[in-house]
TrEMBL record:
Belongs to the class-III pyridoxal-phosphate-dependent aminotransferase family. HemL subfamily. Its EC number is 5.4.3.8. InterPro entries: 4pyrrol_synth_GluAld_NH2Trfase (IPR004639), Aminotrans_3 (IPR005814), Aminotrans_3_PPA_site (IPR049704), PyrdxlP-dep_Trfase (IPR015424), PyrdxlP-dep_Trfase_major (IPR015421), PyrdxlP-dep_Trfase_small (IPR015422). PROSITE patterns: AA_TRANSFER_CLASS_3. GO terms for cellular component: cytoplasm. Pathway: Porphyrin-containing compound metabolism; protoporphyrin-IX biosynthesis; 5-aminolevulinate from L-glutamyl-tRNA(Glu): step 2/2. Its cofactor is pyridoxal 5'-phosphate. It holds the Pfam family Aminotran_3. GO terms for molecular function: glutamate-1-semialdehyde 2,1-aminomutase activity; pyridoxal phosphate binding; transaminase activity. It catalyses: (S)-4-amino-5-oxopentanoate = 5-aminolevulinate. The gene is hemL. This is Glutamate-1-semialdehyde 2,1-aminomutase. Keywords: Cytoplasm, Isomerase, Porphyrin biosynthesis, Pyridoxal phosphate.
Amino acid sequence: MNHDESRALYDRALSVMPGGVNSSVRATRPYPFFVERGDGAHVVDADGNRYLDYVMGYGPLLYGHDMPDPVRSAVQSYASDGPMYGAPTEIEVEHAEFVARHVPSVEMVRFVNSGTEATVSAVRLARGYTGRDKIVVMQAGYHGAQESTLVEGEPGDVHPSTRGIPQSFAEHTIPVPFNDRETVTEVFEEHGDDVAAVLTEPVLANKGIVAPVDGYLQHLRDLTDEHGSLLVFDEVITGFRVGGLQCAQGKFGVTPDVTTFGKIIGGGFPVGAIGGKSEIIEQFSPAGPVFQSGTFSGHPVTMAAGYEYLKFAAENDVYDHVNRLGEKLRRGITDIVEDHAPSYTVVGTDSMFKTVFTREGPSDRSECCSAGCEQRESCTRYDYCPKTGADVGDAETERWERIFWQEMKEQGVFLTANQFESQFVSYAHTDEDIEETLEAYKTAL
Ligand SMILES: *Cc1c(COP(=O)(O)O)cnc(C)c1O
């Protein structure tokens, strides 16, 4: 594969953009390929190379790169009518009604412009509603680039995870290990009356994909109820993907007080949203005392794209298709791993998948999950499958980045560049694509 054009573009980019990119994960080694255009499940780079794409914009692109017809015509029509106004439009109401109709926790929605903005606003909302300052998050969970959640450490020993955030901010955040009932229970015993919210992804999807163990999400629900704290699910990735239109909360049967959305609900355009019971969401200004505002919020083109995106999923076999291919891919990778790398763990659910390069595990996998780790206690690998973000961090992360990812790319398969971010099957992928991908895994693993 020739990459001369991408190399030259990256050279230019390095002079005018930090790291040559506008979002850190894009700066792949030794230099990223620059995309010229999308084509169904493929992307074509500046040198004309075609890749089968499982990055899918890091989550938003449920249909791949070709917009379904109703989405395309809505986008074109709303853009040509005049892109935005600073006054409300019907399409915002329509989108909000759709989300409220399908997602168990949602009666009302506030739309914003990114997942980050959604989680920032949700944390402010939880603090405003409860009059408390502390929030509990999962170690290595991801909620975007926000000051309250870019922290690391243990309860009682918390630090910002980046330069530029005052230590005093981090002190209001308590990170606990995902799937660890005891630690979060202890935190609530000590600080329960000061905790505004527990904020978690229902499935850690930015750190290898870690599924919740049986009863963990319900445990968080019970603890927050007992202590008058809010349970906030960050469904920016899982929303309208895991569990289909009811989202992960429907799939797992645990209803949070507040849900944050992003990615898919904008149909490929910048978006975020905060949803929940009216009593809570109405704390946002102008209805309530918690300030929240945005020039581009509820942008008509985004709202039209997002609404038509979801409506198309409701009216077609979208989730059946992506979930079936997701399962086929996870099943195929599981078989390959058994032969080529028996210590590795295949993870994911619905249309998400990843292979965590775990270092240990029994070689007998006969009783194990056949299409992605479900955290079954009866599985012989139960003690070796990642339960927390730290477990994923302990895997062979360098191997993914430096060898495996590069080899897959050279074979024309575009995966997320490091061990941590989830990968996605889209409606544009076919059975043949999955078979081709499995051949590439066979060579690269
Ligand atoms: C992507 C993501 C975010 C951040 O969304 P942006 O639109 O990138 O700001 C927040 N939470 C989760 C779970 C995400 O996956």
